Amino acid sequence: MARKEIIPKKHAMPCQTPAERVKNFAEVALGYSEQTAMAEAARCLQCKRPTCVDGCPVEVDIPGFIARVAAGDFVGAAQRLKEKNLLPSICGRVCPQEDQCEARCTLSKKFEPVGIGRLERFVADTQLWLEPAALPPEPPLPPASGFKVAVVGSGPAGLTAAGDLVRLGHRVTVFEALHKAGGVLVYGIPEFRLPKAIVEREVQALQRMGVELRTNFVIGKTETIDELLANSYDAVFVATGAGLPHFMNIPGENLNGVYSANEFLTRANLMKAYRFPEYDTPIHLGKRVAVVGAGNVAMDAARTALRLGAEKVFLVYRRSHEEMPARAEEIEHAEEEGIDLRLLTSPVRILGDKENWVTGCECIRMELGEPDASGRRRPVAVPQSEHVLPVDTVIMAIGQSPNPLVPATTPGLETTRHGTIVGDPETGKTGKRGVFVGGDILTGAATVILAMGAGRKSARAIDVWLRDPERKW
Amino acid sequence: MFPILAARTLAPLVKEFVIDARPVALKAKAGQFIVLRIDETGERIPLTIAGVDATQGTVRIVFLEVGKSTRKLGTLGAGDSLLDFVGPLGNPSHVEKFGTVVCIGGGVGVPAVLPIAHALKAAGNHVIGITGARRADLLILEDEMRGACHELFVTTDDGSRGDRGLVTDPLRRFIAEGRKIDLVVAVGPAIMMKAVAAATQPHGLKTVVSLNSVMVDGTGMCGGCRVTVGGQTKFVCVDGPEFDAHQVNFDELMMRQRMYRNQEKTALTRYDECRSAQPREEVTSRG
Ligand SMILES: Cc1cc2nc3c(=O)[nH]c(=O)nc-3n(C[C@H](O)[C@H](O)[C@H](O)COP(=O)(O)OP(=O)(O)OC[C@H]3O[C@@H](n4cnc5c(N)ncnc54)[C@H](O)[C@@H]3O)c2cc1C
Ligand SMILES: Cc1cc2nc3c(=O)[nH]c(=O)nc-3n(C[C@H](O)[C@H](O)[C@H](O)COP(=O)(O)OP(=O)(O)OC[C@H]3O[C@@H](n4cnc5c(N)ncnc54)[C@H](O)[C@@H]3O)c2cc1C
Ligand code: FES
After folding, report:
1. Does residue A122 contact residue A30 with C-beta atoms inside 8 Å?
2. Which of A4, A54, A359, A470 fits a 20 to 30 Å CA distance from B222?
3. pTM
4. In order of start, what are the domains of chain A with their CATH numbers?
5. Which CATH superfamily is domain B2-89 in?
6. Do domains B2-89 and B100-257 have the same CATH topology?
7. Is the pLDDT of residue B281 over 60?
8. What is the ipTM of this complex?
9. Which helix H or strand E contains A377, and what residues bound it?
10. Residues of B with CB under 8 A from a CB of A
11. Mean per-residue pLDDT, A15-38
């Protein structure tokens, strides 16, 4: 192959301008055009031993689909992509490619990596809105195995496992506590990063493949795992996520106007409170908002608050910019939109009035001391540096842990002190016969693609176990 | 979809539905609740399970039309369906043989306390019921309460039925008379439960209340339902809904219940305007 001139940077992603987008909930990033996608695809070196694929938990044939984009064969590209990734329009939008495939791209040694995520999104979107009849036919399913698998939770881990298990010939029912499938994809990640219609569309595709979905069904309440196993399911995959919000246990946290990020985002996203009163669920619209935390969840809460009409949004974080755990792109977007970062700052109490409404958030300044167990420098309070941020809303985005509902109602499942269920990281096998686990409930809060990878691994392990005549555990 | 099999009006603005929801009916125990959604734009509405028929696979709910969502719910009737219906949520009531138990229901707390009274009676307790309402025509399910209790006392604010006064009056009288009471269970408006707690606390009388904080998911995922109990934050939907009345911070609960007052007003006004612009027929032919 003739050596080609390398374009050092990724083709830019067209975006709504910050001034425009803070007034709406429409998607921030607009996606590549066909020309840009083909030009970006042409940057791929088509390595003989593609290292990028090692960085993909679901093993997408990255050079394979990119070669087809470069050739203008978008249908072929989509087929290639979907062989391995059941939720490509979602991954193309929310995966931290900078830590996964793109981090291992050969180009990234000297230049910016190929925009794999942007290409994935482009390719998946070319087919997203086609009528099912217009899509290339699905590969035929293998003969029915006769086995039934229950999947608990419809987040990325559960959906991926369900799709894979159907493709392996099993009958699958997904049980979801909420009224909509998608897990964090529908209740947490906001519309402006991941339009809910896309999640719905990808879930419908799985249903067409044969996945049965039962929403409004809380495992541990409506039925227990033991009942599922006794009443017709041969195996259970638990993928209930990490949905229990943490609070700081500081004074004033139960004042009106204090939210967990989960509640704030659930009201806005799942319940569409940003369209109140057309939709019935209300949300408290603060004029001045403090968001505590600096992960993706905090960025989403802060940017949602802006779009709901807040005049000023502070982001309060006890460490420095460098330690902020959110994706670089999200932090950048948040800063462009005017979020006021209050770094090395930590809330000590929330102040309120007689009617229980928030009037301010008292904070203390921090400085970084010696490294702690996580290797990051431990924040230490600076004496006498208390000050009050005048806000009327405080959103706690300091992490979530697993909901105890399933472990508490399932004898034989062991949990860690973080509340996660103990299971083999390679297969998801738990201490309880027939029960597998994966996603955030196994690892603690992580990412969409890692949850999908876990779903895939467990689906394989479940298949092997079900077909093993001895069924050893 | 969850069909409404039967609907009836129990009192002005109070309606009873029987819903086809087998999985819930098979599992529900006294003290638990469901969350429903009427339609795609609807909010998640928590309501107590006011009885089930496990063989028919049906669940009874009773609701008071207080705002837009419950008002919209009230326009539905037999033959209509609810989009979402999930449960049973929350922990069941703790039922054992305590001895003598006083079960107090105020307003739409009556249907909530009814299954608890039944269960306590079945467990061998002597059950004394107290039910109250503002006026006689607002008093609901009196006969069923009578069936669930060994003795029933009725109060109305204006004396139009039973004794004039509040539900706490008979309770205070029993205490003053020195009747042996082993447990008090009270379900109703927060202000009523607070009054019951205040009446029993000085006498160290064990009292349980079922809280109705503002909820979203009802599964422990949002924390919106949190209350302070014994100085600690609890999520009503998963840690409750029943708590030791003497530990509950009722003032905080009541202030938190008012969190969306302005938005609720907006929603209701807008709803009424939209509906008055439509022909009234549909409204009156049902329910
Ligand atoms: C606001 C926010 C933003 C994020 N942004 C990103 C991002 O940009 N990129 C990224 O990669 N990751 C992001 N993450 C993390 C990512 O979303 C999660 O790691 C991922 O969704 C975990 O998938 P899961 O399938 O394990 O669980 P979840 O997505 O949490 O799904 C679990 C599902 O199980 C259901 N469930 C729970 N208990 C029961 C029960 N008892 N019975 C039935 N159903 C039950 C829940 O209702 C839920 O639907 C974000 C997370 C949040 C909260
Ligand atoms: C566990 C539980 C059990 C309940 N059982 C019953 C019952 O059996 N019968 C009955 O009539 N009512 C019951 N309620 C109260 C009922 O949920 C509310 O009256 C209803 O949601 C009001 O909605 P709305 O739009 O009609 O009124 P709105 O105008 O929205 O509100 C009126 C008042 O209702 C309360 N409320 C509003 N939204 C919610 C919400 N999402 N969750 C809880 N409370 C809310 C608030 O205190 C508010 O001030 C219960 C509540 C809980 C938490
Ligand atoms: S209602 Fe969301 S945690 Fe209780």
Report:
1. no
2. A359
3. 0.94
4. 18-134 (1.10.1060.10), 148-243+402-467 (3.50.50.60), 248-400 (3.50.50.60)
5. Translation factors (2.40.30.10)
6. no
7. no
8. 0.92
9. strand A377-381
10. 23-24, 27, 37, 41-44, 68-69, 83-89, 216-217, 219-224, 226-228, 233, 238, 252, 255-256, 258-260, 263-264, 266-267, 270
11. 93
